[in-house]
Amino acid sequence: MSYKMTVSPDFTPDHIGGWYIFNTWLQKSLQLPIHLELYDSFHQQRDAIDGDEVDLIYANPFDASKLVRDKGFVAVARPRRSADEAIIAVCESFHAQQIEDLDADTKIAQSEDPDVNLICDIMLEPAELSNPDQQRLILGSYPLVAKALIKQNADVGFFLVEAYLSLSKLTKQQLRILARSQINVMHHTLLVGPKLQEYRDLLNQHLLTMTASQKGAGVLDSMGFEAWDNMNDEEMEFMIDLVDTLNYQPD
Amino acid sequence: MRDMEPEDIDGDYIEKILIFNDGSRRKVLITDKETPFQDGRLIVSRTDAKGIITHVNQSFIEMSGYKEQELVGQPHYILRHPDMPAVAFKGLWDTIEKGEKWHGYVKNLRKDGGYYWVLAVVIPNIRKGRITGFTSVRRKPARRKIEECTELYPTLF
Predict the structure, then answer these.
(1) ipTM of the predicted structure?
(2) Residue A10 pLDDT more than 90?
(3) How far is it, in rounded angstroms, from Cα A56 to Cα A141?
(4) CB-based contact (8 Å) between A178 and chain B?
(5) CB environment A87-119: b (16+ within 10 A), e (fewer)
(6) pTM for this predicted structure
(7) Which of A46, A211, B57, B113 has a CA positioned 20 to 30 A from the CA of residue B51?
């Protein structure tokens, strides 16, 4: 029997190879067959989760909350000094200089990334946009969001910070950051599902000592991580409470 | 809680005495200087079940003007501004102690005597059916809402 690992589809393309290397390291460390499946979209990944196909996942905070609450997943570790932040960008020539300059009928381009969309929606609240659902382009990737802004098919675009920074220099020259989140306490988390929970402690030990070996450090480097830090149940509960607080929409 | 000190205050100030629900008093020194809530900031904090601060993020520290070690261990009402009517906080506690979420527009007091407006959302942290603390996120409020509250709150004293 093989277990399945997946990664939140918001990872940067530069680190795809790193996740495959990590999977090889993981299989050797745990002496378990684990298959890495990278989904092209959040929609596809969610279908796999709903079908109980996933046993190990590197999840964004929004999905992690659902996995713990609804699917019995538990947190294992989080990447050190890494926080999920979001950017609202506009075309360089766009009139608005701050969020409150946006018109009520502002058109938004966004991906399916749930936590980025949540954070950016909150950042837009001071503009009091009307009918936002009717003014949204839902696109398959962050480069497409950037393209929609440059072609002026949308006024503002939502980005994960890493995704925005990884856009080409030429693309970024045509865009401008209107707002960047400063939350500091939201981050992706590695979670194990019910079928792998007996390996939680062993996996945790292997992850936390990765930097001790040259090989482990090399694997981390290929993923763009400095190290893994422990993530206990209470820290996960804090993240869930935080996501709940952010999800709350005042009248 | 310690009274506010004149050497911490930025500009001309007036002195007021606050009396909190737990019977404690604090001398506060207030100015009319507003610190703008920068786009993108989200202020995050946690308290225990009695409202004692256990965690703050960097935005909390920068907006309040306090150091982290001056905040952790203090009651959340260290930010209480005398322009906020007591009834607003009664509504907050009545709601969250029932295990429900609360939101409201709040004028907070900075260490330097100035103030900043927030849209605060507070949720109870429920563990094994018991409230163990509260998580709060403060967002930038719409200017129209601040103006409404600036007119409304003085009528609630």
Answers:
(1) 0.90
(2) no
(3) 24
(4) yes
(5) bbbbbeebebeebeebeeebbbbbbbbbbbbbb
(6) 0.91
(7) B113
